[in-house]
Amino acid sequence: MEQKNLSELTNEELLLEAKDMKSFSIINAFIIGFLAGILFISVYFSAYNLSLLIPLFLIYKLTNDPKNKKAKEIGMLMKERNLQ
């Protein structure tokens, strides 16, 4: 099955994509918050080792995920089309 360009999607298809991306965004935000908590605890206890580097790397990877960029683009298209 071939993937359509987001601007070519109908309003109903765009709403379905937005629903899928919303659950992804919530889970992604929870994981990033959990990893940030690990970072704060590591700094508080002065544990500058792998317990500090691994969460930093994972947060970087999660924020630069292509799905994240797709979610932002879907949000902009929904604003453009006045969809909720």
From TrEMBL:
TM ranges: 29-60
Taxonomic superkingdom: Bacteria
Keywords, ordered alphabetically: Membrane, Transmembrane, Transmembrane helix
Protein name: FUSC family protein
